[in-house]
Amino acid sequence: MNELHTLTAILPCSSLDASVAFYARLGFRCEAIYPGYRLLTDDKGANLHLNSAVEGLLAPGHNPFGLYFYAENIDELATALGPLVLHPPEHKPWDMYEFALFDPDGTLVRVGCPSQHHPAA
């Protein structure tokens, strides 16, 4: 992987601790802590930066942000996240096998992989 050619989302959060705990359930760990900022990564090279949101930016029920997390273990993650999952993993018309959930601030997080990589495809 060329580390000089990557893209990382910077996500505003009301509570950095709550967001770190949520994304840990998706396999991310906190690599660095700075005032108002956290750097998360997983074992496969995914990165996510969390930033303290300015007051009023994240209105409950009106969060405009979204993430798509590409992973291989879709069923395992959906099971581990249990009641947080909005719908069970399913094959979508856009050829992805995925499920969705909201993080603590209402950010829509879709977790999926290409349908052809899922055994039930």
Q: Could you characterize the architecture of this molecule?
A:
The protein has 121 residues and is mainly β. The protein has a single domain (9-117), classed as 2,3-Dihydroxybiphenyl 1,2-Dioxygenase, domain 1 (Roll). The protein is built from 2 helices and 8 strands, in the order E-H-E-E-E-E-H-E-E-E. The chain has helices at 16-24, 74-81; strands at residues 9-13, 29-34, 37-41, 47-52, 66-70, 85-91, 96-102, 108-114. A 4-stranded mixed β-sheet has the order 1-4-3-2, covered by helices on one side. A hairpin with a 2-residue loop joins strand 2 (29-34) and strand 3 (37-41). The longest helix is centred in the first third of the chain and has 9 residues, at 16-24. The protein is globular and about 45 Å long.
Provide tags for this entry.
40% strand, globular, four-stranded mixed β-sheet, 2,3-Dihydroxybiphenyl 1,2-Dioxygenase, domain 1, mainly beta, 121 residues, 2 helices, 8 strands
Strand order of the largest sheet: 1-4-3-2
CATH class: Alpha Beta
**Counting H and I runs of at least 4 residues, what is the number of helices?**
2
Euclidean distance between termini CA atoms: 28 Å
Number of spatially distinct domains:
1
